[in-house]
UniProtKB/TrEMBL annotation:
Cofactor needs: [4Fe-4S] cluster
GO terms under cellular component: cytosol
Pfam families per UniProt: Radical_SAM, UPF0004
Keywords, ordered alphabetically: 4Fe-4S, Iron, Iron-sulfur, Metal-binding, S-adenosyl-L-methionine, Transferase
Radical SAM core domain location: 112-308
Name of the protein: tRNA (N6-isopentenyl adenosine(37)-C2)-methylthiotransferase MiaB
Gene3D superfamilies: Methylthiotransferase, N-terminal domain, tm_1862 like domain
Record's keyword annotation contains Hydrolase: no
GO molecular function, one term: 4 iron, 4 sulfur cluster binding
Residue ranges of every copy of the MTTase N-terminal domain listed in the record: 2-116
């Protein structure tokens, strides 16, 4: 029986992947430990969405490698998985094995970390190619899970006593064949709360708004990233909407869902953003009044259009 430590960096998609990795080791009889110094195998689920996240991954690898050099009887196997694996150009010193994300099977029933809400991946990857974003390169083109498979997983979470699920993907509302249809099918289950993240404004259809308004168990806090409130910056970002489009969408949603609330993502310091462009972003914040805003400084990612 091996002792396994799993460290997860990044988004909820990585968290969901790690739940399946944990289940794999648990099912084969290994022991999951909370301290990498106790482990025979260290699995690092990496994130590269920003330079700071990538640096934390390398920092942990170096920390473990240096510890191995000092402690004679400490020789764990280091396995790297997650978004760094597809984009790394050379072998990383100290890493014994690379595990591509595509090798993490949905056939494995996850060992869930969150005992309240179950993370249900519905898709992986992205086809939007926003100019700042590395996801299409790190996770590949968008792939949707079969609807029947997703609904079966939802049923299993209900059997285990979960009353809340979170449908996750890089862009859930571009799920094929139909995200509104999938969301409605999930809403018909005996769940108290259904959330979904993340979504792009240009895929937020009137049909989706209708479904959300129809079912009270669908979360009224909608995560709707706008990134910038300036049309020129949005164009450079390859975001397929204008400030007017975004505000119009918010207005349509509010007209049908009176108790709706919004959270968002914002990038500041994007190449070419001056004071006027920044104030246009501030203007959107004042008009929408978000419950939560995740604000990050622009981080150039190698291989993306905006980093060239």
């Amino acid at each position: 029986m091996a002792k396994v430590f799993i460290k997860t960096f990044g988004c909820v998609q990585n968290e969901a992947d790690s739940e399946r990795i944990k289940a794999y080791y648990w099912e084969r009889g290994d022991k999951l430990v909370d301290d990498w110094k106790e482990a025979d195998t260290v699995v690092i689920n990496s994130c590269v969405i920003r330079e700071s996240a990538e640096n934390r991954v390398y920092g942990l690898i170096n920390k473990i490698t240096n510890y191995k050099l000092r402690i004679t009887n400490y020789k764990p196997k280091i396995i790297l998985t997650g978004c760094l694996v597809p984009i790394v150009k050379k072998k990383i010193e100290g890493v014994d094995e690379m595990l591509p994300i595509k090798n993490i099977s949905f056939d494995i029933e996850p060992l869930r970390n969150n005992k309240k809400a179950a993370l249900i991946p519905i898709s992986s990857g992205c086809d939007n190619y926003c100019s700042y974003c590395i996801v299409p390169y790190s996770r590949g083109r968008e792939r949707s899970r079969p609807m029947a498979e997703i609904l079966t997983e939802v049923d299993k979470t209900l059997e285990k006593g979960f009353k809340e699920v979170i449908l996750i993907g890089q862009n859930v509302n571009s799920y094929q064949p139909s995200f509104p249809k999938l969301l409605e099918m999930v809403a018909l289950k005996k769940l108290k709360k259904i959330s979904f993240i993340s979504s792009n404004p240009w895929d937020f259809s009137d049909e989706l708004i209708d479904v959300i308004s129809k079912y009270k168990n669908i979360n009224r806090l909608i995560h709707l990233p706008f990134q910038s409130g300036d049309d020129e910056i949005l164009k450079k970002m390859n975001r397929k909407y204008t400030q007017k489009d975004y505000l119009g969408l918010v207005k349509r949603i509010r007209s049908q869902i009176s108790d709706v609330r919004f959270s968002t993502d914002i990038i500041v310091g994007f190449p070419g953003e001056g004071e006027t462009a920044f104030q246009n972003t501030v203007s959107v914040c004042k008009k929408v009044i978000f419950d939560i805003a995740y604000i990050n400084k622009y981080s150039p990612r190698q291989g993306t259009v905006s980093a060239k």
